[in-house]
């Protein structure tokens, strides 16, 4: 199974797990508790309380939370992958002697050593790919500036790839408030249909429907803010990784390249 298939499989697993978890909590805890609280308030002739269960009870909130948990799960997977790549920065991929110049001939030796890395996830990480590409290019062209250029190109492509992988999360960050607005429209529509009851003095149905309208948007906006915070934290972490990989490559490889011993 290739990397794309594995990535898609992880997304599906994260969706299934988040759906099962959130739906179970809503079915077993939140909706029964909200129904009990609203029933007690109605018997006392009071409006529905603004408790957590009542705020979350509707289907729009459930769907928004499922998407948010799914997106956070995706971000968690990306964070774990980035943390693994950070751990590679402590490895000595270019074991050279002090004051030793890396020539095109010795570059071939280092290149073959990196090519034999056993862990596929390590070989595909940003830092090893930068080193492999630069060493191979230097061995073939004997051009130091060109070797430096291709190394930085690899890091730029990796940064673009990381950014593209967050497109689904960006969609969720947009979709969650939209789902909240759907709840708002639904709630206002229900409230308008019960306007006749309100004119007769029974405002319970209207207040419950307006509660649906405003609660769904409130929860969706909070979830969107939280999701955007998590996404930007990951982006900062990934940007820092790319910067560290460039620093490693410059310090341990590019600054020691030369055409003669």
Structure explained in plain terms:
By secondary structure, the chain is mainly alpha-helical. It has helices at 3-43, 52-56, 59-87, 104-115, 120-123, 126-141, 144-164, 167-193, 195-199, 204-252. The protein is rod-shaped. The protein starts with a helix and ends in a 9-residue tail after the last helix. The mean pLDDT is 84.
* Strand content bin: under 5%
Rounded Rg: 28 Å
Structural class: mainly alpha
Largest sheet: none
Overall residue-averaged pLDDT value: 84
The rough form would be described as rod-shaped
Number of DSSP helical runs = 10
Parts with pLDDT < 50 across at least 5 consecutive residues: none
Key words describing this protein structure:
261 residues; mainly alpha; 0% strand; 10 helices
Give a short synopsis of this structure.
With 261 residues, the chain is mainly alpha-helical. The chain has helices spanning 3-43, 52-56, 59-87, 104-115, 120-123, 126-141, 144-164, 167-193, 195-199, 204-252.
Topology record:
Elements: H1 3-43, H2 52-56, H3 59-87, H4 104-115, H5 120-123, H6 126-141, H7 144-164, H8 167-193, H9 195-199, H10 204-252
């Amino acid at each position: 199974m290739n990397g794309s298939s594995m990535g898609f499989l992880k997304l599906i697993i994260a969706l299934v797990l988040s759906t099962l978890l959130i739906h179970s909590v809503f079915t077993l805890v939140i909706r029964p508790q909200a129904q009990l609280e609203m029933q007690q308030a109605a018997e006392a002739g009071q409006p529905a309380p603004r408790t957590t269960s009542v705020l979350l009870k509707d289907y729009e909130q459930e769907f928004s939370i499922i998407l948010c948990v799914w997106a956070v799960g995706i971000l968690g997977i990306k964070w774990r992958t980035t943390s693994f790549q950070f751990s590679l920065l402590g490895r000595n991929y270019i074991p050279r002697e002090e004051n030793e110049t890396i020539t095109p001939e010795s570059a071939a030796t280092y290149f073959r050593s990196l090519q034999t890395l056993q862990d596929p996830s390590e070989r595909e990480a940003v830092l090893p790919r930068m080193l492999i590409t630069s060493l191979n290019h230097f061995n073939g062209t004997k051009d130091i500036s060109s070797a430096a250029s291709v190394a930085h190109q690899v890091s730029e492509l990796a940064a673009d790839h990381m950014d593209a992988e967050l497109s689904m999360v960006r969609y969720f960050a947009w979709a969650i408030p939209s789902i909240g607005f759907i709840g708002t429209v639904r709630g206002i529509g229900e409230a308008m249909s019960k306007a006749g009851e309100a004119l007769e003095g029974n405002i319970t149905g209207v207040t419950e429907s307006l509660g649906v309208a405003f609660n769904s948007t409130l929860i969706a906006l909070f979830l969107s803010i939280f999701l955007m915070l998590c996404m930007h934290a990951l982006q900062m972490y990934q940007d820092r990784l790319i910067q560290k990989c460039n620093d490693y490559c410059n310090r341990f490889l590019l600054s020691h390249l030369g055409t003669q011993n």
